Amino acid sequence: MKFSALVRVVLLGTILVCAGGYLWFDHVASDVVGPADRDYARTSVQQEVLRAIRQAETIADPLERCLAYPNPVGYRWPREEIAAFCADEFTPALGWSEFKDAIEDGKAAKIDRRLDALLEGYFAGKVPEGAWMAAYSNNFSGTNALNLELVEQWINQSPGSAHALVARGMQEYAVAAAARGEKTIDETDPDALDRMSQANERARELLDKALTIDPRITPAYRVLIWIAKYESDEDLASRAMEAANRVDPANFYVRAAMMDTFEPRWGGSFEQMDQLAEDSGRFLARNPRIDNLRAMALAHRGLYLHFDKDYRGEMQEYEKGLTFGPVGFYFDLASGAATQLDDHLRAVEFTSQMLRFGPFNTDALGHRARELKKLGEDEWAMSDLERLLQIRPNDRDALGAYANSLIKAGKHAAAEARLKQLIAADPDDRWARLQLAWLYGFRLNRLDEANAMIGDMLAEAPEDGELWLQRIRLLESRPGPEMRTAVESFLKFADESSPEQMKAIPVARAWLASHPVH
């Protein structure tokens, strides 16, 4: 579930007749990430889960932190498997600045030597498989002007470099993937499919040429299998898989790419997925990651239940698969299913696994903050939002959620700053403007500024019942002709689909009846 899917609702006041008078109820700042369940009853196991996650996240070293995370309750992943995946994620390989600086300094040979060393280290068992793969995927998958130019310079500086050819092939594949998009074949423009196939053909030529020079560059086989998936070329996929197995029999990541091609949505079957996992099992002693293929095959069943919105059945399939190992894609879907089932603790566990292997995953941080609020873990939720905003300082939903949390914590000046930041980024952000007006009027005692903001919004939308109701609330302390105008306008423009406004209508009529014009 994406963090941008959060619903930001502002309840702009309710009016009641109370004790013979009128009480225009104070606007309550919305809880962006859901109502906190303060009475959430935790078992000792659940309390320990949350404590262990928080404890792990205090560890500064990324690799040690990854190893220290608790597994989800009920999962008994082999330590060797988790150690392998943690090493994949947090072992330094080739950094982007290292690559960029070397190419711009005319020292492409330095990058070739670096990748040669990583290749030799991988086959000697000194470099984790995922780190070797990441040296390519983290640096050569971009297609912006700078990325393309740097790889072009690399090829010019090192015309015989197999590594440079693979990098360029990966960029062509990225162009193909962008052309293909995420729609079904029937919904995709034929011209886009032509662009995809042309880019895939260029990628194949580059990758084949690179593998002729050095067949041990296994990231190239993975890309060839992805190309085969897009082109429905079973022969290409099979040949790439066989070639990868010849040079690296116990590989995991190339097999994982092959698992993708066997998914039913790409023309494969569950039986093919299961068979690949079973056939690969004989290499488990050499590569503990192999068991994750079984996790992928089993968890994939849940995807189709996800499309049908059968969240309970979906969750059951994910649980069956993920017991064999961590798969980020399915943890993402499983956390969403857990949310739908109101299993907030399980959602926290699953989003925490995403953060275990990807601490900068802003979607996971946002989702976990939402679930933590529902568990009453306000301080931890705010900490996650702060982490998110350090990565994406202008994220609108995160800023809104954080501003709400600050309001609830009584940190009104800090909330004002965040709301102003939202408005500076988007002057038409209605939610932020309303929240800031509410903050001025009901927490910071700056009624003139609050009225001015609502006035500006009414000038833009004079038929907005919600705004007139907020105007009434602000005028409560200074009744006069403006109050009558506000009440009459509210009655004229009240939104019948709004329960809050419908509750206010009889009170507004009663107010007019008791305040006749003289």
TrEMBL record:
Transmembrane segments: 5-25
Protein name (database record): Tetratricopeptide repeat-containing protein
Gene3D superfamilies registered for this protein in UniProt: Tetratricopeptide repeat domain
Organism ancestry: Bacteria, Pseudomonadati, Pseudomonadota, Gammaproteobacteria, Lysobacterales
Keywords assigned: Membrane, Repeat, TPR repeat, Transmembrane, Transmembrane helix
Annotated SUPFAM superfamilies: TPR-like
InterPro entries linked: TPR-like_helical_dom_sf, Ycf3
